[in-house]
Specification:
This protein is α+β, with helices and mostly antiparallel strands. It has 17 helices and 13 strands. Helix content is about 40%, strand content about 15%.
Length: about 475
């Protein structure tokens, strides 16, 4: 068969149109439509002036730079240098930036100046989905993932470690100063690079040591990113952040496929998730305007204060306990004991009495401690199963949340709760998979909690745009011009 003409020196008979180089259903076309549909007043709230000054050297249009960053995040590009190369070499991103090729310094200065305002783009994606009636909000799955920061865990020190490091740094500075004094260099006076770095390190160590030694300060601090926490993961400890997300399924498209939408996203340095459910629910409520029919979370979010607050708000939550079913169905589990409020005592399944002994202080408040007589427990036929404590007998506690925990335990045993529970992993886990595998979330690139939170929300925005683009292609989502 004959071959097509192949000539790298070929010239165009007519000037090419940039618009012809990108397919009509390409994702960057939806990104452009999404950004073009944002009203000017919302851009003003984000700190972006779309008009520009009447005089002076022409600058890159804000939508060209914003489009480059949003399109880059959708494509898994978060580095300003890689984004510069993509605006030059990638046809879709070149189309999105209107054939302009800003350098990495221009891109970085724009991102640094406007990343706080760009956090509003996540809210805008949810508003677009709500306007298209794509968010039934029947369930909302909440989960977190530990992500390494732009810092090494080996740079995290406690007070003793910082004091020892300060001693070593002071010794190194003394040696460098001695070398500098004995130098025969006749040039202008200057600080040797090694000495300058050592003095800068000493200043950082002094600041960190003062923070750690403060009465309300942290137990340890990372010298590279002071905001990063030392967090446990499946692969060991990392210096990073606990990235939280609230995910809800969207309506089915014509093919019967549902999408996943992030309605709230934030980062914290807390090593666990116990205190994160309520803030995520509040953030999702602020974005969507209402609470979900049911909120789903794993056992890491289970605690009394959270369940009590949800009960006060009449919010249905599905959160399993970490102790597991074998303990819950044990014959002498605490739920098998009955509390007698009139006498303030607890009666065990063997009709023995546990009396109030003392108050114990906990992080979430006081709890009342009840114990049976040690001799009664030793003589009981259930000894060895109910308790093995020969000196004190069986001990139970009651807190202000005991009744709430028991009510939630009863709810979790129902078939309705178990049906909802099985949906959680199919909602939030795929989103984290997309973020890590397709959008490159293996570590955060920025430092400081505020900057990382902006990076995380822009990643969530990119994830939502990928979902909404599918509905845009099918015609279920139509974006008109900005009002």
């Amino acid at each position: 068969m004959p071959y097509r003409a192949f000539d790298r020196q070929q010239v165009f008979t007519l000037p090419p149109a940039l618009n012809d180089w990108v397919p009509p259903d390409h994702a960057v076309r939806f990104v452009a439509a999404f950004l073009d549909a944002i009203p000017a007043e919302q851009y003003a709230a984000m700190g972006l002036d779309l008009v520009g000054a009447a005089r002076g050297a022409p600058a890159y249009h804000p939508l060209a730079l914003l489009g480059a960053w949003v399109g880059g995040f959708v494509s898994g590009i978060r580095s300003s240098r890689k984004l510069e190369a993509a605006c030059r070499d990638s046809i879709p991103l070149r189309w999105l930036s209107a054939n302009q090729t800003p350098d990495h310094n221009t891109l970085w200065r724009f991102y640094q100046a406007h990343r706080a305002g760009m956090r509003q783009l996540l809210t805008r994606t949810v508003e677009v989905a709500l306007a298209a009636d794509l968010v039934p909000l029947a369930v909302l799955a909440i989960d977190g993932t530990k992500v390494s920061g732009n810092a090494s865990r080996d740079r995290t020190y406690d007070a003793a470690g910082l004091a020892a490091l300060m001693t070593r740094v002071e010794g190194a500075i003394a040696d460098l100063e001695a070398q500098n004094t004995s130098s025969n260099d006749d040039g202008p006076p200057r600080l040797p690079p090694g000495l300058a770095r050592a003095q800068a390190l000493r200043a950082r160590v002094q600041t960190a040591l003062a923070q750690v030694q403060a009465p309300d300060g942290p137990n340890r601090l990372n010298l590279t990113d002071p905001d990063a926490g030392l967090l446990p993961t499946r692969h060991g400890w990392v210096a990073g952040y606990n990235a939280q997300a609230a995910v809800t399924p969207t309506s089915a498209d014509p093919a019967g496929t549902m999408g996943l939408l992030i309605t709230a996203a934030d980062v914290t340095t807390a090593p666990d998730d116990h205190a994160q459910l309520l803030p995520l629910l509040a953030a999702s409520r602020a974005t969507t305007g209402r609470d979900p029919d049911a909120a789903l979370a794993d056992g890491g979010y289970h605690n009394g204060p959270t369940l009590a607050a949800c009960a006060a708000q009449a919010q249905v939550v599905v959160i399993p306990e970490t102790q597991g079913r074998p303990r819950l169905v044990a014959p002498y589990h605490q739920d098998r004991f009955s509390y007698e409020a009139d006498t303030d005592q607890i009666r065990c399944p063997e009709e023995q009495v546990l009396s109030f002994r003392f108050l114990r202080q906990r992080a979430d408040g006081e709890e009342r401690v009840y114990r049976a007589a040690a001799g009664v427990c030793r003589d009981c036929p259930a000894f060895g199963t109910c308790t093995t404590n020969r000196r004190q007998g069986r001990e139970l506690t009651r807190s202000p949340y005991t009744s709430t925990l028991q009510a939630h335990r009863t709810w979790m045993a129902s078939e309705a709760a178990q049906t909802l529970r099985r949906q959680r992993q199919t909602l939030v886990e795929p989103v984290f998979g997309i973020l890590k595998e397709h959008l490159g979330l293996r570590r955060f690139w920025l430092r400081g909690q505020a900057a990382v939170a902006a990076e995380w929300r822009l990643l969530a925005t990119a994830c939502n745009l990928r979902t909404l683009a599918r509905y845009w292609r099918t015609g279920q989502l139509v974006l008109g011009p900005a009002q």
